[in-house]
Amino acid sequence: MMADGGAAAPTEAGSGALPPLGRDFAALWAAAATSNLGDGIRVTALPLLAAALTPSPTAVAGVTAASFLPWLLFGPVGGAIVDRSDRRRIAMATNAVRAVALAAFALAVASGRGSLVALYAVALLVGVGEVLVDSAYQSLIPLVVPRARLDAANGRWHAAQMVADEFLGGPVGSLLFVVAPALPFAVDALTFGAGALGLTQVRAAAARTRVASTTGLAADVREGVRWLWRHRLLRTVAVALALTNAGFTAGAALLVLLVTDTLGGSPLAYGLVISAGAVGGLTGSLVAERIARRIGRGTTMGASLIVGAALFLAIAAAGSVEVLAAVWTVVVLAGGVFNVVSRSLRQTIVPDRLMGRVIGAFRLLGYGTIPLGALAGGVVADAFGVRAAFVAGFAVNIAAALLLTRAASDGAVADAVAGPSPDA
């Protein structure tokens, strides 16, 4: 468990038998994986529904923008709320609310009232819930997992996300959409409800109680933002992630149009491309711990961003769905490695009492650019074609990779893990 004042370096391989991840992590993991399956189904179905409602690339990209806009508007506030709350309970309540919202949307689609306005509204609402739930989950992991196993826990966590969100969610979501456009959203509602129930099995005392804050919400938000900004390494990682997510989403938000319009694939082909990426993400998640232990966390993060950036040019040039799927697999593999290692680094360094707020501030930078990238990609595609959006994404992504490799050397990472936290 993390101490308030900072964190020591994780145990390295070879120092003895590694401790198990534990029962509470298994329960937390299972609850999240269940709702992640619904996320994958919904994330696949929403752009398909948008594409059926409008031919505009900008309007289709707006679905991704609406889904991530809450991180830009609500990220640090949501993190502060999580830090002041029972993290397990707030995740349960939020998932229950999202289940009701998705059930209502499924009824609207089934009755022919599934407009773009309603689509954007549900994407925004679910996105607000994601801010709370994701901050709670990321704060809970280091409370129920031995610090020496954070890379392993995050690898399994990200692997579950890949399998549920994309490997299963992609084809299942597209298949359900073909059967009935309302069906994916009804299933998503069920998975949110099941995820809320699953969290009742997380019983660790540290995961169930929080000390009440003696300061105001605004002061708590400022404290988390200030702490992150004073930490040079994590600040650089957050800025690099912001650029990477903007560049990545400029193309990824239009992947459905690249498959179905440019390459002439079916909605099922789009789901299969998403699943191919999930295979890569799953692989990257499971090998990230081993790679980081062998070549260092800093080198691992930098190399993964460079590989992902370079392959965006190959996506722009892809001449078939099969080639696109192969390249997308490696892109998501590199992203999986980066996500696992950077997440573990953050959980190792940030004090527990600030975890939710710092995650919120981190995601404000890292996720807040996703709506901007999605909309920018749509504008570029409207003007120059869908492939041009991936070329623009490459330019932004390579800049982010170069920024990170200069600042996040293995020595800088080791110093940050071993050194004291900046004063809050």
Topology summary:
Elements: H1 23-53, H2 57-83, H3 87-110, H4 116-144, H5 150-179, H6 183-198, H7 205-208, H8 217-230, H9 232-252, H10 255-262, H11 267-295, H12 297-317, H13 321-349, H14 355-384, H15 386-407, H16 410-418
Descriptive notes:
This protein has helices at residues 23-53, 57-83, 87-110, 116-144, 150-179, 183-198, 205-208, 217-230, 232-252, 255-262, 267-295, 297-317, 321-349, 355-384, 386-407, 410-418. The chain has 424 residues and is mostly helical. It has a single domain (23-210, 217-418), classed as Growth Hormone, Chain: A (Up-down Bundle), CATH 1.20.1250.20. The protein is globular, with a radius of gyration of 20 Å.
N-to-C span: 20 Å
Overall number of domains: 1
Q: Which CATH class applies here? A: Mainly Alpha
Largest sheet: none
The count of helical stretches stands at 16
CATH architecture: Up-down Bundle
Low-confidence stretches: 1-15
Specify the helix fraction band: over 70%
Order of helices and strands: HHHHHHHHHHHHHHHH
Rg estimate, integer Å: 20 Å
Q: What is the number of E strands? A: 0
CATH homologous superfamily heading:
MFS general substrate transporter like domains
Beta fraction of the residues? under 5%
What is the CATH T-level topology?
Growth Hormone, Chain: A
